[in-house]
Amino acid sequence: MEFHRVQTIASLSTDKETIPEEFIRPEKEQPAITTSHGPVPQIPTIDLNDPDEQNLVRLIVDASKEWGIFQIINHGVPSDLITKLQDVGKTFFELPQEEKEVYAKPHDSKSVEGYGSKLQKDPHEKKSWVDHLFHRIWPPSSINYKFWPKNPPSYREVNEEYGIYMREVVDKLFTTLSVGLGLEGQVLKEAAGGEEIEYMLKINYYPPCPRPDLTLGVVAHTDLSAITILVPNEVPGLQVFKDDHWIEAKYIPNALIIHIGDQIEILSNGKYKAVLHRTTVSKDKARMSWPVFLEPPGEFVVGPLPQLISKDNPPKFKTKKFKDYMYCKLNKLPQ
Predict the structure, then answer these.
(1) What family classification does the UniProt entry report for this protein (predicted)?
(2) What is the structure's pLDDT at 179?
(3) Nearest 5°: phi and psi at 139?
(4) Exactly one of 132, 135, 189, 223 is catalytic; which is it?
(5) pLDDT value of position 109
(6) Domain holding 133: CATH number?
(7) Higher pLDDT, 10 or 201
(8) How many domains does the chain have?
(9) N or C: at which end does the chain have fewer Cβ atoms within 10 angstroms?
(10) Catalytic, out of 127, 271, 273, 277
(11) Residue 258: domain span
(12) Can you give the three-state secondary structure of 11-56, one letter per residue?
């Protein structure tokens, strides 16, 4: 079978004591220097099944304004399904390199879908210690199964089931965030693409790294999505920038980590904040995560909601097609 050769971290052989120069971050970004080790606040954890609706709205609104990130428990996704999602993803990344490269992102592709290690287009930029696989899991019209691994054989079934449960979580989050803005429950979801919102799954695989103090799995960024819903594994690494500190997210088994992304910040005209976050890596263990990015279709136009704009609160962001926003962000162009 013919496959597209990609350089990935998994295909890189490194010395046991060092890493290639292109992975070493400048000192102002190195985890050993910049991670906060003192007493720090914890990322909020919220019970999504809270019977007190007003309390749930208040907690999610506060977390989305102050942190841009929170963890949810009692979210309705079965714990055994989360385990299966992790198992099939881990099995794929443990396959021989040539088997993974069957799913490589095509060289000339304008989409991020496929297996690889690079997102931004900057040949002079430092590299990140991560391999990834991207593919959409919803809606059915946007799915391209050529990027879905056939090995392990249960991969498709598990991801399709996960997509079904995700939709319920997504609807509850959008509804709660809408109500928190004083709007009808469906407003934010409709403004982010409605039933056409694309669920882009990414599996991040961060192999063990001989010098985790010098490099990053993913550099500091906000997500270009509306919302990101992330499953981590038990290896810590997700860090959030809050009050001038990099704070590590506590691992809570079966919790989902919710990131407010750029599109919700835009739609709310800055009331909700997209979270600045990054990922560190481990010396001894592979870290993995499974974010689902909720993205408007490419042609869909997103801007501050008119209901939130007034003479005293003018628009803080431009209104533009999502594909144009994404192009500017990935190519580091001004919005």
Answers:
(1) Belongs to the iron/ascorbate-dependent oxidoreductase family.
(2) 98
(3) -75, 165
(4) 223
(5) 83
(6) 2.60.120.330
(7) 201
(8) 1
(9) N
(10) 277
(11) 19-296
(12) HCCCCCCCCCHHHCCCHHHCHHHHECCCCCCCCCEEECCCCCHHHH
